[in-house]
## 1
Amino acid sequence: MNKQPVILVTGGARRVGAAIVRRLHAAGCAVAIHYRSSADEAEALAQELNATRTNSAHTFAGALENDDTPTALVDSVLTHFGRLDGLVNNASAFYPTPIGETTAAHWDDLFAANARAPFFLAQAATPALRAAHGAIVNIVDIYAERPLAGHVVYSMAKAALVMLTQALAKDLAPDVRVNAVAPGAILWPASGKPEEAAEALIAKTPLARKGEPDDVAEAVRWLLLDAHYTTGQVIRVDGGRALNI
């Protein structure tokens, strides 16, 4: 059995997910890097980390919206590493759903990625996490509390993930701690963000800058490894942005 704490990070191949993976690995964890379609990025990241510490990173593919994927993913991680100490529900879907243009497929997709998959992953991981006295961190959003205009379904789905965080913190106590991180402006969408809109958002952020993926990664590391008396909490990593929504 692996002697390092083993953490499963969904959506761990790119962007914030990759920063979380790197930070946890630097803290001495073995990392299970889940990806859906970013195979090249996931394999490159695992090779990078294994070059510094042998057999400390491995990739796992899966479409989390499929009914059997969460259990199969957890089983694969346990087969490979022999243990599971933490789960980071980072994989997400984000796009606008304007009133009058939103379909049932949009609803199902956004809730599947942002609420349904995290629940079933947590359920599948619970026996191993109880045995390890481990922890779960869900990546939510400041817009779970105050919705983002034009993103009704996304905001609702992330609000559901906040409630899941609190419900699991009760149901899995005292064996498993469950918390969430709510990022603000960390990375613009891959499609970019108009300069004027970006500047307006930063102007409403008290710390007057965009955050970095490492800001989120450090909060996740703390909650997983050091926050021994913290559960059911949502930690905002937003430069104070939520104060001005």
## 2
Amino acid sequence: MKSGLTKSIPLELGETVAKRWYVDSCLPQVFETVSEWRQKTGLHGVILHEDDARPHTAKTVNEFLAENRVEPYQNPPYSPDLSPCDIFLFAKLKNQLRGIRLDDAMLNALEQAIDSLTKADFKNCFDD
């Protein structure tokens, strides 16, 4: 079982999360990282935990997931209380990044903040 964040993929300046970006850029990078991780651990199967945002639920995304034998685990609609990102992650990262301008320094700081997250951080969001 992966304990924490698998991969972070920043958007280019002016780019938004859309189904094409999600299928063409984001998911392939995530799956490459998961594949490398699986080779090290010997575990199989992937469950992808997403919210119900439009890019996550688009037909092309579901087709891509099916082709890659990935089981989507989606929250019930309008249930941010079930998403670890909404429960603690965004606020925690926002506090660590306060006052940093959005440029290379910001991306480096974001990567460091994400890398600092532990298995306990994710577990605690459900225990609190």
## 3
Amino acid sequence: MESERIQRNKIQNQQDEKDDSGIEQDNSFIYIRISVEDLHLQKVLKFNLDDTVWCAKQKVLQVLIRELTDSLNFGLYLPPCNGRAGKFLDESRCLREYPLSGPVSYLEFKYKRRVYKAIHLVQKNINLKINVKKFIESVRTNQISKVSRYLEKGFDPNFHISDDETPLSSACIDLLEPRSMIMTLVNGGAHLDFRIRNGVNGGAHLDFRIRNGGLTPLHQSAIYNRKEAIVTLLELGASPNIYDEKMLTPLYHSIINKQVETNIDSSYCCLLLLQDHSIVNCHDESLSTELHQACRLGLVQHIEHLLFYRADINAINIGGNTPLHICAATNQEACARVLLFRGADINIVNKTNKTAYELALVSQNHSIASLIETHKSEHVVPFRDTPLINPKRRSIYIEQQRNKHRARSSSNTTPLSSSSTNRSQSMPKFNSNNSTRRSQSPITTPTIEHYFQQQHPSSRSSSPKSFSVNSDHGFGSECASHLSSSSPNAPNGSYTYKRKRLYAAAPGRKCMCIKSYRTNLPGELLLKKGDIVEILSVGEQGYLEGKCKDIEGWFPSNHVQDICVFKNGEMINDDTIVISRDALSALMINNDAYSPRTIVLQRGKKGFGFVLRGSRVAGKLFQPSPSFPALQFLDSIEKGSNADKAGLKQNDYVLEVCF
């Protein structure tokens, strides 16, 4: 009885500690009155201040409203107060970062619409059906002036098109140069986190398990690898850590995307998200992380990026398998070499009590089994360089740690934040400010020294998208690549080329050129389709440094595919080459730069065999460009027709017609 009385007094004292601000004195919890005006519901709920707005929204949906149509597009709205305009709370930020005042704070839970400053506007009168159709057509044809006029009249761009896309997501994935249209839509009231209803259109490119809804424009851009759209959305404040309905981040979608287009560099899109504080080790319902998926798909460059940004190399999925187990089961030797080189544990057993070596033997992947068997601990070279991150973006995890430290200083006992146990179990362990950090010990591995000489990094980078971090080997800073004297444009036997190295590639990594590359600057490597390139280092902006035919230089990573070279299960030069189906299909496609050509075409019994379409362009005068050379193009080609036999392809532009 005495213990119960003490417990009741303790609870009463904690309730009495609540001050006039609605926040308890331990600075951990707050009481908020949530109002759902459409359903005429109100309820006071208790929230942890260190929780994100996303966690708070999930709690509202679970406690207050269990079933709601398009629930992910509802948000917590802070009404106008004290001269401040009303706004929807950013789902990636903590509740502590917002001015929640009063004994019990007040927030509205409503559907995300455009926030109007002029109250007299009637949105239903503006978003008429005919206006919606014209607006969608203007967005898809990149008519910025027309879109701006609609938005200036008060048009709300937050709606779903017939195919469940949104105008902003359509601009991100359909336009070749979407930057201006994205900025116009966002300035006109489009929410960066307004989600589509169902899965991604064109799901044939994707694994069937990821056709889920709740995708934001950033998710869509990551899936389709739209670099310009990703950069623009991030610059406008879109969070790289926003979740879809399956609790997956844009980074996760950029990994599991299975599109194979040689003009797209998905690894660079992955790097862009990582540089903007994207969390790692997010997992799906089977507990498979980004690293598991990258190993399953054979994405060597993605694996390097993830490990460089401190992904858990020994993460375990629901079957107890590590990424090395996945490589052993799917015969991804190039990925396994990177994992072993970076320190993967070969002694972890899965739930069937098998190590990666035993799983490789069972799967009859003897080359990987031999690789694991001959691996020694002295071969491991972990990353010692500091990853490059965007210093202008505030990391929500660092803010949470500061808030927790502040809360502990005011109270001896502080409950743990529920947000610390979310689906993403870990985060990159590096500082978010622009300070630099040097490696504690220089890399003395002979393999690394064979590839690189110690450089003297400068204090700033010439690239606006990169951020200076000093290192003992010059990685992560503007460094001069001293290439071999056999390079064609080398004055006095050598020359320098300014390109930022991020980190050294795993030794023995080789790629095959699947798309010819012509050099634009001195120091770049001329590549022809079928060339074998030895990768030396990974650079900024999606570039790799490699060696081909005793010549070193830089080239875009989307022009090559990783391969393995075998002889009796061992890596050697000039022998059997094993490439993936994707690389083989890319080699078979004529994907070199398009050039004007003349076709002589005769009319058949059913016509020419093609469908001609016309494009609309904003403005009175059309100016041809390399990406948009004409207004008319071929929409479809009938198989076996005269057009097909003459070599016409879908999306070919018609420059001139002569009779």
## 4
Amino acid sequence: MTEAAARHRTKVPPRPDRGVRMPWVLGTSPVPDPPAELALECLVRVQESPSIVSFTMRRRDGKPLAFRSGQYLSISVPAGPDGTPCERNYSISSSPLDCSVVRISVKREPQGLVSSWIHENLRPGMTVDALGPLGDFYPADVERRARFLLLAGGVGITPIASILWTLHKADGAASIDLIHHASRPEEFALSGELLDIAERDPRVRVHLSLGDRPCETWEGLAGRLDAEVIESLVPDACGRQVFACGPPGYLEAAKSVVVSLGVSPNSFFTESFLDTVQTGELEEEGAVAPAVWDTEAVSEAEVADAVDDIDGLPERDPDDPRPAVSFVRTGVRVMAEEGETILQAATREGITLRSNCANGMCGTCKVRTLAGDVDMRHNGGIRRREVEDGIILACCSRPEGDVVIDA
């Protein structure tokens, strides 16, 4: 090599890393924790919008809380009759790079039991019980083609904000576009910090759109999410990974639009707040009502006798060796196949049980057993006190003989 050639080569800048890696892969932050029962102390309360309040909390035991961006916590507060605990799932809206604290952003629903309690009562210095981190709505630990389209409808911005924070902090080549739809200008929660990220990071672009509601004071984007909007803002959307969060109707529209643009279904990831009750305090249409039997007041024999008296419940075939799963509220008895979960048996017979993750993590499919034993192999989606009270997760519980379910 000539001296001139050597001098020329030294002027070539080093090639930047392709893609991004999560901080725990690089060793700059702790590996995400498995789900665990937590006591969280509220440190800071911030009004993000007329309907959304953020709460920054820390573990009472002083330990860090390591999580993946996009995950959520199951929060328990005494919002029920006589202060009985009620749980709801709320996405973490902060970045996992600071494990000393965690932030949730809660929208108050008009008929929301838990969200109303949180808005009215949770203040700095108070402690709430939590379970988590939970959920599988997050980018891979290593993204070599780090091209993302983030879609958020309303308070669906909460896990998306966490994802955006993490991608922003990760070094490497990336292209990230966020489109956030809200009903009113004042409802763009967390928009200040997200727009600030876009100002400082040339890899990030943030687009705010009001949807199709007219507003004389709004000069930004407006209109429903459609292919024309995405093509104008993100021309290369078909080559991106899409993370979308919001109510079911928004997600249905998002999927239809991005698929029409050529996005592979394998590159489309969603989190539905109604399915996991993250802001939803309203019962999903067609879902089974909550348990009403007092299991402490009756014996298993009495429960079995009561089951036999339910109108419409077919008689148990004594010659059938399969476990019988009796759903007392719907009056249906299902013979479970080998290896079948309670949820699978119910679904096969047309019984609607609320569910979401199907792997024992989110806690959506909780039901009460009134008699019988199950083999429950969960991934942290249920509390110890609930198990002791006869609650199971239908998605990961298999009957070990005849079982009676309050559903």
